[in-house]
Every structure is written in structure tokens, then in C-alpha cells.
Amino acid sequence: GAVVSQHPSRVICKSGTSVKIECRSLDFQATTMFWYRQFPKQSLMLMATSNEGSKATYEQGVEKDKFLINHASLTLSTLTVTSAHPEDSSFYICSASPSVGQTDTQYFGPGTRLTVL
Amino acid sequence: AQSVAQPEDQVNVAEGNPLTVKCTYSVSGNPYLFWYVQYPNRGLQFLLKYITGDNLVKGSYGFEAEFNKSQTSFHLKKPSALVSDSALYFCAVRDSAGNNRKLIWGLGTSLAVNP
């Protein structure tokens, strides 16, 4: 149980294009999902907290107009990197906390490797 | 301010020997503590957590961790390491009184188990 998927697992795009990453909780409902960014050999950097039916809460220094987050249902959150640039290349990971039961635990997706050329 | 420290960037241990990955924390209230493991190019997998109750917590893959309030520590342990345990380990904490579920993350410890 507590499986989270991400799609795509890997994406290569040209500079200036937009990329959408999906995060789904497959066997549980998640009121809250989180989006992280991870650079090589570094810790997780929380980008934003995504709450179903409301606006995401962005961490300081994260541009909300560049990293658009939508949490339209209890099982799906999307992150859209708009007008991507090479410096946006990174490993993006989402997590989800169950709405009931293990509400204090974050369950992670397998990550999405974004490469911007 | 809340914080987590993993004082060792890397831990090396021989297969079959016991392993310890250290974590200390700082929160204003009662802590919720977590350990996660990350294999190369993968997301994180939940290992175990301390919320309340018994200070010794048992988790996945034979790992356990002991909550020590006086030392503000939550070290991860395993009696006998396997080569397959080689991975990146993250400790995380949140304040139980916090209004959100945001976790504060340590920088990670790379565990290498040598055959």
C-alpha cells in the first residue's frame, strides 16, 4: 500500500518549452502533496506544498509563476515547469500524505529527471 | 528554529557488521521523526518513524531507530548490514504542534556496505 507514481520518469526538452509532471497516489487519497527538487549528491529541497482544492504554498525563493502546481483531485497533483531553462534541469520528486490513517507520513514517487537543453 | 543534523556524510561498514547512521534534531515542541532511504536515481522509501510511545522503533528491512529525548537523537541502526543496504539515508523531523506537515530534512548520509 501507499504507492505514489510519477509521470514521466524522464523528460528532455528544449529551452523555452513547458513541461508537466504528474504525481498520483494510487491506493490512497492525499489531501496534501509535496514537490521537491534534488540536485546531485544533495538533500531534498522542498519547493511547495500542494493542497487539494486550494492554492499551493511555495517555499521562499521558489517562483510560483514558473513552477505551476495544480492539485485538482485527492489523487493527483501536477507540477508544470514553464519556459524551462537549463538551470531547471534537476530531479523532481513528489510525495503524498494520506488523508486518513498514516497522515503524518509522506510517501514518495520515484522521481522525474528533467533535462533542459 | 527546527533543524536536523546528520553529522556523517558517509558511513562505511563491512557486511555482517552492525551499522549506525546518526541523526540529531532540534524542535520547539515534541518531535515527529522519520527515516527514509534512497537508492540511486529513485525516490525515497519510508523506513520508520517515531510519533509517540516506545522509544525503540522497528521498521522495514530490519532497521530500527531509538528516540533519545535527552540527547535529541534518533540514530538508525541495523544489527547485521547487507551489501544491498548501500544507499543514501535521510533523517527528517517535524514539530508535532505544527500546522502543516512539512518536514525538515537532514543532508543525508551515504552508507556503503562492503562485501
Commentary on this structure:
The complex is a heterodimer of chains A (117) and B (115). Chain A has 117 residues and is mainly beta. Chain A has strands spanning 4-7, 10-13, 19-25, 32-38, 44-51, 57-58, 67-73, 76-81, 90-97, 107-108, 112-116. In chain A, strands 2, 4, 5, 6, 9, 10 and 11 form a seven-stranded mixed sheet that branches. Chain A has a four-stranded antiparallel sheet with strand order 1-3-8-7, with no helix packed on it. In chain A, β4 and β5 form a beta hairpin. Chain A is globular and about 40 Å long. The relative contact order of chain A is 0.33. Chain B is mainly β. Helices cover 0% and strands 52% of the residues of chain B. Chain B contains no helices and twelve strands. In chain B, the strands form three sheets. In chain B, strands 2, 5, 6, 10, 11 and 12 form a six-stranded mixed sheet that branches. Chain B has a four-stranded antiparallel sheet with strand order 3-9-8-7, with no helix packed on it. The termini of chain B are far apart. In chain B, 36% of the residues are buried. Classes of the chains: A mainly beta (117), B mainly beta (115). Chains A and B meet through β5, β9 and β10 of A and β5 and β6 of B.
Strand content of chain B: over 45%
Give the termini separation of chain B: 41 Å
pLDDT < 50 runs, ≥5 residues of chain A: none
Number of strands of chain A: 11
Number of strands of chain B: 12
| Class based on secondary structure composition and strand pairing of chain B | mainly beta
Write down the overall mean pLDDT of chain A. Answer: 93
What percent of the residues of chain A sit in helical stretches (DSSP H or I)? under 10%
Helix content range of the residues of chain B, please?
under 10%
Compute the average pLDDT of chain B.
93
Tell me the span between the first and last alpha carbons of chain A: 37 Å
Chain pair forming the biggest interface: A-B, 25 and 21 residues
Q: What's the gyration radius of chain B in Å? A: 14 Å
Reading the helices and strands of chain A in chain order gives: EEEEEEEEEEE
Reading the helices and strands of chain B in chain order gives: EEEEEEEEEEEE
Sheet of most strands of chain A: 7 strands, mixed
* Main β sheet profile of chain B: 6 strands, mixed
Number of helices of chain B: 0
Give the percentage of residues in beta strands of chain A.
over 45%
